[in-house]
Predict the structure of ABC transporter ATP-binding protein.
Amino acid sequence: MLLEVRGLGKKFGGLDAVKGVDLDVPEGQVTAIIGPNGAGKSTLFNLLAGFYRPTSGTVTFEGKDITGMKPHRTVREGIARTFQTTKLFDDATVLDNVLAGRVVRSKSNALDAVFHTPRHRRDERASKARAMEELEFVGAAHLRDRLASKLPQEAQKRVSMAQALATEPRLLLLDEPAAGTNDEETEAFGLLIRQIVARGITVCLVEHKMSMVMNLADQIVVLDHGQRIATGTPAQIKSDPLVIEAYLGA
Ligand code: ADP
Ligand code: MG
């Protein structure tokens, strides 16, 4: 198992945003996490990537206990995420935003940077090449010199994906990649996610668009009120009475 989550919990005051969640994410697959608004999906991602510290439970990634690790360390371990609301650097170009994702893989240190050593220059060139590759991969290379914050939502989502991919993740957490996009764009994001999986990157996806979830997911996990209420293949989930009651029927 690439990721093993056991008894994971997060309390906000008296509220159990995530409660006793067990989750196995097999390598090379797409695991979709669905559930009504407020079910705890984004909180779960924040716990996995270290933005929140769990109140209880454990997170094991590639056999290593990463419970409570901060985001700059989980990203080095190989976990990258995109946000439900894209979080790009406002005054930076698209290329600089993606280069920010390269920082975690930089081989030169602060002194190399200050003195512009040959190692630093080599590193910078390689980083830029890699960032451009990722921009090409997501179909946003032509936007490299544009201000990220001025782009339409759909383009910003692509750039965030390139930024996450630039960190060389083994596990990519995508929080509502298709939210606010039209049917055609949703379809294009679906294709892009398939290409990401084809690169050997495991994907965990939170998404409300059921067509996308049913098309892409190998495994679906359903959360409701912070708890896991079902796990199964798309076909199993579609016909699960608990799920229909909590979510699909709503
Ligand atoms: P989802 O992504 O499934 O819509 P969230 O994980 O965002 O749900 O939220 C789960 C619950 O936790 C909600 O009731 C939400 O209001 C609450 N919550 C999320 N983040 C915080 C926070 N930082 N502080 C307090 N409550 C929070
Ligand atoms: Mg959410």
Summary: The CA atoms of residues 153 and 180 lie 8 Å apart. Strands lie at 3-12, 15-25, 30-34, 56-61, 64-65, 79-82, 171-175, 202-206, 219-224, 227-232. The radius of gyration is 19 Å.
